[in-house]
Write a structure and sequence with these properties.
Number of helices: 13
Helix content: over 70%
Order of helices and strands: HHHHHHHHHHHHH
Strand content: under 5%
Largest sheet: none
Radius of gyration: 24 Å
Shape: elongated
CATH class of the largest domain: Mainly Alpha
CATH superfamily of the largest domain: PhyR, sigma-like (SL) domain
Structural class: mainly alpha
Number of strands: 0
Distance between the termini: 100 Å
Length: 239
């Protein structure tokens, strides 16, 4: 009985140890285990790629940023003595690589997006594409920190603590950035849904505070009629 119990305990301990080893990819990479790097790529490359694509809006650039991130891991992790939270560390590297590409290349091409899930009808599929395209445009209009935090949270599933590590900030700051990003996206959607009469009153009254607001600007971006009304008002005032 005692021997069986010891055997079971040993087996359980061994399984727990193996599970810990499998989860400790950064430690295995630090010990220069080649399989660890293959596992790092397998586990994280899709999320890293999607994150880079959300910033760069270009598939080739996103691939470049992904490869640069993985190359950085290959260079930096072997022999590393510190305990590294691998996932937020990878996202921090990916963030820096993506921002460097944005600043260096200033790509002018429109967003290239992953194909949406097929819808039940052609009309529904087209509507899904339009919503996805608008979401990408809205995300690009957000301040960099809000966009990055929101994509890490909503698209990649990082915790607030991990987002804070990735963005070199605190967990509280990460929560605030995600919250502000969500509020900003909501404001853009509400702006597109504003009644044209309300928008045109603000334009006619020259309500500067409202004209500078995110909601009204979002409406003007999406409404040809109100944009034309604003242009006609400006022409009359300049005459």
């Amino acid at each position: 009985m005692s021997h069986a119990g010891s055997s079971t305990a040993a087996t359980g301990t061994g399984a727990e140890s193996n599970r810990t080893d499998r989860d400790d990819l950064s430690g295995r990479a630090a010990r220069r285990e080649q399989r660890a790097f293959a596992e790092i790529f397998k586990r994280h490359h899709q999320a890293i790629y999607r994150y880079c694509l959300s910033i760069l809006r270009n598939r080739e650039d996103a691939e470049d940023a992904l490869q640069a991130t993985m190359a950085a891991a290959l260079r930096a992790l072997p022999g590393e003595q510190r305990d590294i939270a691998l996932r937020p560390w990878l996202f921090r590297v990916a963030h820096n690589e993506s921002i460097s590409l944005v600043r260096g290349r200033r790509a002018t091409a429109g967003p290239e997006m992953e194909a949406p899930i097929p819808a039940a009808s052609a009309e529904a599929q087209l509507a899904d594409r339009d919503r996805l395209r608008q979401l990408v445009i809205d995300l690009q209009s957000l301040p960099e920190r809000q966009r990055s935090a929101l994509v890490m949270r909503e698209l990649s599933g990082l915790s607030y603590e991990e987002i804070g590590v990735a963005l070199s900030s605190s967990e509280a700051a990460a929560r605030q950035s995600v919250y502000e990003g969500r509020i900003s996206l909501q404001g853009l959607q509400e702006g597109r849904e504003m009644k044209c009469e309300t928008v045109r009153h603000a334009i006619s009254d020259r309500d500067g505070r409202r004209l500078r607001g995110r909601r009204l600007r979002a409406h003007l971006d999406s409404c040809d009629g109100c944009r034309g009304f604003a242009a006609s008002i400006e022409r009359r005032r300049s005459d």
